[in-house]
Amino acid sequence: MTRKRDEPPAVRVYTVCDESRYLIVRNVPALGCGNELLKLFGSYGKIEEFKPMDGEDCEPFTDVYWIKFLLVSNARFAKKKLDEFVFLGNRLQVSYAPHFESLSDTKDKLEGRIKEVLARLNSGRLKGSSSQTPGAVKEPLVSPAPLQVNYISEGINFTQSVFSL
Question: Quick check: pTM over 0.70?
Answer without folding.
Answer: no
